[in-house]
Amino acid sequence: MKINESGRINPINPYQRNAESQRQEQMKKSTRKDEVTISTEAMKLLEAQNSGNVDKERAQRIQSLKQQVSAGTYQVDASQLAEKLAPFFKQSSEN
User: Fold this and answer.
1) What is the 3-state secondary structure (H, E, C) of the chain?
2) HSE-CB of 49 using CA atoms within 13 angstroms
3) Along the 95 residues of the chain, how does pLDDT read in single tens digits?
4) What are the two backbone dihedrals, phi and then psi, of residue 29, each rounded to the nearest 5 degrees?
């Protein structure tokens, strides 16, 4: 009775073969190049921004807010914040 086949040099392990094929697939996926697409809406916004149609008052207000935040002098109006958040809390309590 023959228990082991001594004539086989390299027995094939199906699990090893499966793992190797998965590694090869991952390598193919990792070498794939990333791709970026820009929507038409984003293109329109970019064109509007570059064309100089940005409201000057709005741009000045944004710049002023950036300076206040960076200097640490920006103060949040708690009553305005509460008014904006109140509808969200009302919706969640009704459900």
Assistant:
1) CCCCCCCCCCCCCHHHHHHHHHHHHHHHHHCCCCCCCCCHHHHHHHHHHHCCCCCHHHHHHHHHHHHHHHHCCCCCCHHHHHHHHHHHHHHHHHC
2) 7
3) 556 666 555 556 666 777 788 888 877 766 667 788 999 999 988 887 777 656 777 888 999 999 999 999 999 999 999 999 998 888 766 66
4) -70, -40
